[in-house]
Amino acid sequence: MVFEKLSYIEGKNELFTYSSLPNIFFSPDNTALYATNKDNSIIELEIKTGKIKGTILPSGSHNERITIFTISNDDKYLLTSEFEDLLKLWDKNSGKLLNEFYCGDWILDISISPNNKYVVALGEGEFNYIWDLSSGDLHREIKCFCQSHTISPDDQYFICSNRDSEIVIFRIEDGKIIRKLKGHESSVFYVAITPDGDKIVSVSDDNTIKVWDIKSERVLQEIKVYDYKTEDDFIAYAILSPDGNNISVPTDDFLKIWDITTGVLIQDLPFKYSYITGSVSFSLTYSRDGVYLAMADGKDIFIWEKK
């Protein structure tokens, strides 16, 4: 099965996609994409036509611009963030504000842990914040200059890439470092964990994708993004498929998809990069069943369907 182009949505809405976290998400029924709009609302876009179907968060919900948002795996919670220091947790279906979180730092990335136990924010400095979702209490501050992060499927481990190009695994309960995975030679801007919790996939500016066995700390697979990377070639973002089998990375004019077990390039999906943000900025998201894949480049949205 391969992906085929389903639709192209021209960016009349000037989508905000300036963070490392995907700012587009598929609706549970796969008929719409949620996206931030220029009026600071979060809207539903019909995936085939790009028409606005509705609004899941109205304009005025934040005083400042919403720079990042994410949705819990069960579609129950919506987490939004301003760039400076404020996160808001919403009941996604009713739109009710459930809690607010302050971290005292510029926010680079946010997430809701897989089992809705924690709310997480990466600060621009050396502190990262983990709150209890139910109570709103600060559970843990983790000291690390993180560039990307993920939470293990059992909600027990905080995994991030640091400034030394290492992947660091912290135990959330006590904040202790469990493992450090070393091998990349440059910044690691994406890190993900497979659904079985056994492997970590990392993507680095050193032109490599590495697949790690967590227990042995061994590299199981290494993939080159470019055959010969030049100074003009960028590696800006990546996303692991919901089943944990494939990694997708946008390059100059193609979204490339590899099998993480074999290292084989499965597909090159062509796209035209609009480059309106002044820097290389992408958002990528899969539908929960893995049938649809979407990419926003700061302006336009490309959507593919698995056939």
Beta percentage is: over 45%
Helix content: under 10%
Helices and strands, in N-to-C order? EEEEEEEEEEEEEEEEEEEEEEEEEEEE
Largest sheet: 4 strands, antiparallel
- Please provide the count of β strands: 28
Amino-to-carboxy terminus distance: 5 Å
Mean pLDDT: 88
Taking pLDDT < 50 over at least 5 consecutive residues as the criterion, the unreliable ranges are 13-22
As a whole number of angstroms, the C-alpha radius of gyration is: 18 Å
Provide the spatial order of strands within the biggest beta sheet. Answer: 1-28-27-26
By helix and strand content, what is the structural category? mainly beta
**Large-scale geometry:** globular
Q: Supply the number of helical segments.
A: 0
List keywords for this structure.
single chain, 307 residues, mainly beta, four-stranded antiparallel sheet, 0% helix, globular
Write up what this structure looks like:
This protein is mainly beta and 307 residues long. It is 0% helix and 50% strand. The termini are close together.
